[in-house]
What we know:
Two copies of one chain form a homodimer.
Chain A lengths: L19 E9 L5 E12 L9 E5 L8 H4 L4 E2 L4 E2 L4 E5 L30 H14 L5 E7 L1 H12 L4 E7 L7 H15 L16 H15 L2 H8 L18 H13 L5 H13 L11 E7 L7 H13 L4 E6 L7 H4 L3 H10 L1
Parallel strand pairs in A: 3-6, 3-7, 4-5, 7-8, 8-9, 9-10
Antiparallel strand pairs in A: 1-2, 2-6
Amino acid sequence: MDSALFQENERTAAVTDERQIADLGPFTTERGYDFSSIQIAYETWGQLNEAKDNAILVCHALSGDAHAIGWWSRLIGPGKAIDTDKYFVICSNVLGGCQGSTGPSSLAEDGLPFGSRFPIISINDMVDAQARLVDHLGISRLHAVAGGSMGGMQALAWSVRHPERVQKCFVTASGAAHSAMQIGFNEVGRQAIMRDPKWRGGDYPLNDQPKDGLSVARMLGHITFLSEDAFGQKFARRLQGKDTFSYHFGVEFEVESYLNYQGDKFTSRFDANSLLVLTRALDYFELKDLRAATAEFLFASFTSDWLYPPHQSETLHQMAIAAGLKSEHVLIDLPYGHDAFLLDGDVQGARVRAFLG
Amino acid sequence: MDSALFQENERTAAVTDERQIADLGPFTTERGYDFSSIQIAYETWGQLNEAKDNAILVCHALSGDAHAIGWWSRLIGPGKAIDTDKYFVICSNVLGGCQGSTGPSSLAEDGLPFGSRFPIISINDMVDAQARLVDHLGISRLHAVAGGSMGGMQALAWSVRHPERVQKCFVTASGAAHSAMQIGFNEVGRQAIMRDPKWRGGDYPLNDQPKDGLSVARMLGHITFLSEDAFGQKFARRLQGKDTFSYHFGVEFEVESYLNYQGDKFTSRFDANSLLVLTRALDYFELKDLRAATAEFLFASFTSDWLYPPHQSETLHQMAIAAGLKSEHVLIDLPYGHDAFLLDGDVQGARVRAFLG
């Protein structure tokens, strides 16, 4: 295993100077909630050509943000598979998120955070908000939509909801619908948050959110992102900064230190209510078929990904075939677990480059 | 998949009239903590023969108790693999537990619960307390020690710590040491408890324990006991008592209802500090080899058990072989995940019967 690949993912993408905010005006969700206006934070890389046909929309996963060149640095950049010398690459923070787009921590018209008043939203709502952003950028048709995990679900939703606007669709480490186990993991995370007294029914001050519950939810998330192998390679049973046990309930093992650190760090950049809203959208998502789609598909999955196991990608590929669409499913043998979709620039990258080209 | 096997495990074994409490007097832990006296709760089934050579000690897993005929009903009973018509079967609640044996919720000499004063204990301590119980019952040598998961670790510890007292050793769904991933899952559970304000550093009133944290820890446990397949078969994406979503953060899916129910139910029978103490003992346990052992071994593991994956049992089997001991490892292909060691009476049962006979 290449240990260089285990450098910390840049999930914690800094808010960069390049980030822009689009005011997109009134927005009605799929279930009929009327926002008087929504904002979507986004970044772009590369140049839109004159024909405006070289745009690629990248969709982020649960805890990601608009800074795709950070968290997907192995795929996006000059000369990389999603080549910013060639394509105009767009990534926006999802509706319901907390990195500049309208979400539960945004201020409502009364000047207070939405909190519990933020509506339940869907993957389709995220995609419809992105479509408005794409309008705003003057682009009618995307060369491709690409995403992994929750980002893959958005790409799928694009393909059936706005088929005329999507030429190619790259979906990695994702699925057509959450299984009971996936819903179960999300539910444990939600309960960790909602059972934290500081959650206060969702209406907490933004400077005093339910950090402990959010941290526990994130710790659990980090376990599901890796694999047994990846954990073993990364931590084994090594102790944290000592040679012998201290015999207490504090940190003994490196893996404990890592999880607590990741959990606590997350609370400084993520809103607990956003985690609730986005995991709910994930659990509700259920793609029945791809008959409305016209795009060409590339699916990727990873042998060690037990959170979004390869059979879920194979099901998607079969849906595309059943819909008469051109489709490929690449099963990639790497030991990094779900995180592989972020870490693998090589195998995935070569396939994506050929697919887009 | 046989859906009958999915009836609720009898993890929640009632405290029966048959439960007895042995006062075992002073006890010093491996690390030198002196209890002025310990109590061990136990049950027995069958008759001890005159030669006193037909006793089998059964060791329970993390959340089990002395009522083995409940939680291991598929293996223990008249005519079953661990045949109570033939053997004298003993099971005790572990030291550090909360079902009648001395643990953090027991009252210390000052009349208050031990709470944070309860020492860190080891699997060896559990086993040494059991050895004292076996003395108390007038038995010098056990025909067998048997256990799964944490119970398997106790059986292993018996084999190397009291080799002259163990003839056969059956270890199922267990391992020589927790991997980083296993430690990680335990740590998330511990953090869920310790970050609950009601934990109060471990010194909470027994009628007001950190229920929410304990419940979240247990929910997570229940996910790790099953497999993706088992979850799918049991719940799929079925909704709980309705045909359409309610669009809120309450229960939507059956799997959510199940996990919350299991989590909350657990808090009425289990002590949060016991969960901390026992998971710590699990994480510390590390069996280097079996050279001190003399017993004959049978190891079982299950293809779908990703919490204690089969390779951990194979490692144990190889340790036994390397120590020149008679050993067998049976890999059983069943889809129930870690719970298979509780649910499988057939395949496992036949092997155990032959092994003991």
